[in-house]
Amino acid sequence: MFKLAKKNLQWWAVILAVAFLIVQVSADLYLPTVTSDIINKGVAQQDIPYIWHTGAKMLLVAFIGVTGAAVNVYFASTQSQKLGKKLRFQLFDKITNLSNREFDSMGNATMITRTTNDVTQIQNVMQTMLRMMIMSPIMLVGAGIMAYTKDHTLTIVFAVALPILAIAVIGIMYFAVPLFKSLQKKTDRINLVFQEGLTGVRVIRAFNQDAYEQNRFDGANADMMKTARRVFIITSFMFPIMTFVLSAVNIAIVWYGAHLIGAQSMEVGNLVAFMTYATQILMSFMQLSMVFVFIPRAQASAVRINEVLALENSVVDPTEPKDKLIVDAPTKLQFDHVDFRYAGAEQLALQDINFTATAGQTVAIIGGTGSGKSTLVNLIPRLYDIEKGEIKLNGQDIRELTQKDLHNDISITQQKAVLFTGTVRSNLQYGKPDATDDEMWHALELAQAGEFIREQGGLDLRVEQNGDNFSGGQRQRLAIARTLIKPAPVYIFDDSFSALDFKTDANLRANLKQDAAMQQAITVLVAQRISTVADADIIMVLEEGRVVGQGTHKELAANNATYQEIIDTQIKKGSDLDA
Ligand SMILES: Nc1ncnc2c1ncn2[C@@H]1O[C@H](COP(=O)(O)OP(=O)(O)OP(=O)(O)O)[C@@H](O)[C@H]1O
């Protein structure tokens, strides 16, 4: 936690917070002495001018104390809030720049909890630290010394009271701290179930699994509640114990103090001041103990935040990157004996992949589910790094380029069409920030999306969260338009035509064929339908990560058993395509 604080706090503000806290504590410690002076010298001797004079002094000291507290709270709050803001930003920045391998290793739910709940823990503890953690020890020692100056023998009560409190606090912490840590894990769990419930709400309803999901959530919720209840029951003992000890201490002080006053070895004012110091000592002791409960809890959060911040990207830019690709050379994309394995997997997900495509060509990848099609196209923008072989763009190994340069040269539509909240225009601007309206309409027309966008309201039509106000096919066409508007030498469509009807799919492919920009580019497309891949220059048939057939539709239809099997399941023998 100190590592996070050290990096992100403004030290001048922390110093000011501490300085004003010392002002407040000094005023708080001085006040009981002023009170005792009023009683001893003013009230006892009925010296009214002294009471007025000392009363004014008391007001001034109280004012200084309040000012010190206000300034300290201001700096402590702003610093802790700024720390929270910085940490949230750093986490968001890190998470959005993680390569897929590291992202897969964590999961969404815990990333969200770490960015929200864990950061709040750190923020709260930092606020507490900049007040209580510094104030309590100073107050404890200061009030101890002041109490001692009022009466030496009465301080013996603390020798009894403080060990009793210490034992109570240690006992409570012993049981509470592990529970606090487990609460954080349970928050992760509840977030996971909640997130799955939200994203899968339609599936849940369709399968009539509302009750099952509710039970699952209820289970996680009840589990969290039980732990939270245990934590709060345990910590709730703190207050009665504290009240009991404080009352016992006060009784002891009054009882013993009365004897001292009777024997004329103590003044009434000193007894009153002593009682105030006793309260300050015990309260600061309790506050300090609470800080020690908060710290392990925040420490657990700090570890979780540091875990994310310390994640090293497995895909990194080269130390001496090659120049950006030569744009006027005809584009060439090569896979040269490429092997790839997911982290921790025993088997290769892709094995010995080879192909070369040049500008204007279309490479289509077809195969059963799980055969490795998406994996293959994800290797081109380096979402994962390969284990063996080389992927080259215009003769350069893609690992020798910066990821920014590489991504500038690739425009991709993922298998699951992702749209962002905003408008059609803002979504298209993801592809080309300075795109004109004409360019946007051109891309929409190419993607067969022009008609419905025009009918529904044009470029400023709202796009709701996840594009929920569009059908699956419409979402996919919008995502394709966003890919097409970006000028790039390589276009990738990962099963992007699957939600389109046959006619729209055929029209879209015909549009792409006729488009001047697409004629200069390499198109890599993953598809399940023979009709989608039939026109491609190179078709690769994948089976369990291996290429079991490579060629044109005609060649494969004539010689490749796997391809023929796919045709058989989709197109009746003797149809036009078989000819
Ligand atoms: N992130 C991942 N971590 C580990 N294994 C993965 C990951 N993604 C995919 N796989 C595995 O890699 C293999 C190939 O998956 P891939 O998604 O490339 O298949 P696909 O051919 O695109 O399938 P589909 O047509 O169903 O989309 C599968 O066995 C899958 O279980």
From TrEMBL:
GO terms of molecular function: ABC-type oligopeptide transporter activity; ATP binding; ATP hydrolysis activity
Keywords associated with the record: ATP-binding, Cell membrane, Membrane, Nucleotide-binding, Transmembrane, Transmembrane helix, Transport
InterPro entries given in the database record: AAA+_ATPase, ABC1_TM_dom, ABC1_TM_sf, ABC_transporter-like_ATP-bd, ABC_transporter-like_CS, P-loop_NTPase, Type_1_exporter
Annotated localization: Cell membrane
Alphabetized CDD domains for the sequence: ABC_6TM_Tm287_like (cd18548)
Protein's UniProt name: ABC transporter ATP-binding protein
PANTHER family: ATP-BINDING CASSETTE SUB-FAMILY B MEMBER 10, MITOCHONDRIAL, ATP-DEPENDENT PERMEASE MDL1, MITOCHONDRIAL
Membrane topology, from the record: Multi-pass membrane protein
Any Gene Ontology CC annotation: plasma membrane
SMART domains reported for this sequence: AAA (SM00382)
Residue intervals of the ABC transmembrane type-1 domain: 15-297
Domain ABC transporter intervals: 333-569
Segments traversing the membrane: 51-76, 130-148, 154-177, 231-257, 277-295
KW Ligase (keyword) present: no
Keyword Transmembrane part of the UniProt annotation: yes
Family annotation (PROSITE patterns): ABC_TM1F (PS50929), ABC_TRANSPORTER_1 (PS00211), ABC_TRANSPORTER_2 (PS50893)
Gene3D superfamilies attached to this UniProt entry: ABC transporter type 1, transmembrane domain, P-loop containing nucleotide triphosphate hydrolases
A matching Pfam family: ABC_tran
